[in-house]
Specification:
Length: 307
Amino acid sequence: MPILGISIIIGGLALIYLEILRSKQPQAGNAADPENNVAAQNVAPYRKITRRDLTWTYIKGLFHFQVAWNYERMQALDYLYNITHILDKLYKDPDTRKKAYQKHLEFYNTNPNTHYIIQGMDIALEENEGLKEEAITSLKSGFMGPFAGIGDSLFYTTLDVVILALAASLVLSGLWWAWPAQILYGLIVLIPIRYFFLRWGYEGFTKISSFTETLRTLTEVVGMVGVGVVAALIYTYVPVTVPITITTASKTTVAVGSLINDIFPGLIQVLFAGFAYYLYSRRVRIVYVLGIIFVIAFVLGALGILG
């Protein structure tokens, strides 16, 4: 539960930050002036895409998402399969359609539940803006990481654990009928929420006046939440100790690790996560980031600084 609490706190701070940004942005143009009224151009969902199209994307995802998972591009092939009928509808030119297919075969990996938000936003983006490859790449790469952290912490490490623990407790207490709790959780919560996420991503993103500016803002805000959630996961599941002790003049032994945890719990994990994020923000490849973190941790562990 602490991860969920941290997610809610960081999400609240991110929403406050978003509202501050919105208050600083200039208001949309007068509705009577079509040249300045950008919002009037892109406010209506379901202009080319129908609810049936979205429902078909949702159904295909339920039965096929992650079926073609592979180590090279992970969920990319499943992502493309879910929206082939939409791409066929949006891009009548064969060459453009081919480019769209190839574009969605790029690397993609995120939580299979929150994935539907990204796919809904992508459908809205392509319906309104066409095949803008840089915008599509920015949307998918900007959201799949944060939504993976948010989705995994919310569903896998919180709700799944709570449901399974509750069911196991009830079964051990003699209430044998509680065993299908996880199945009911999937039927009642996970399956419907995916359709809600898809509609929410599509309809919400369609009504936005400026796709580029909003995409930049949302990426920043969701990134804040994602980094916070991942840091919380690291603190919870990656224990790091400092086995150094100091003997004071009064012959009292002080454990440095305990002292650090009393002042700032999880400081070492936060420093490692912050350093990794800094390297990644400097466009260091993720493989190199992992290698650098591994070398630093190995050296500090060999020296007895970390345990």
